[in-house]
Design a protein that fits this description.
It is a single chain. The protein is mainly α. α1 crosses α2 and α2 crosses α3. The longest helix has 22 residues. The N and C termini lie far apart (29 Å). The mean pLDDT is 90.
C-alpha cells in the first residue's frame, strides 16, 4: 500500500482508498492490476473496475454491475456490525 500499512481487502475498501489516497490513486493510474491485486478483488470486480477506468463516466450498465458486486460485501458488513 502507499505507506506499507495493510488496508482491508475488498471492493468497498478499494473504492474508498483509491478515491481518498492520492498516492494510491496515482499507483492505480500507473499500474491498476497491481493495486487491484493488493485488495484481493475477484475476477468480476477486477473486470468492472477495469471497464470503469476506461470510461469517461460511470454508465448505467457499469453502475448496475458495480452495485451488484458491492451488495454482498455490504450485506456481510451489516450482518457483522449489527
Amino acid at each position: 500500500m502507499s505507506d506499507n500499512t495493510t488496508l482491508p481487502t475488498g471492493l468497498i475498501s478499494y473504492i474508498y482508498n483509491v478515491t481518498n489516497d492520492e498516492v494510491l490513486k496515482q499507483r492505480a493510474t500507473d499500474n491498476l492490476a497491481e493495486v487491484m491485486a493488493e485488495f484481493d478483488l475477484t475476477a468480476d470486480q477486477k473486470r468492472i473496475i477495469t471497464e470503469i477506468s476506461l470510461e469517461t463516466g460511470l454508465t448505467d450498465d457499469l453502475w448496475d454491475q458495480l452495485s451488484a458486486e458491492l451488495r454482498p460485501e455490504i450485506q456481510h458488513t451489516i450482518k457483522t456490525i449489527w
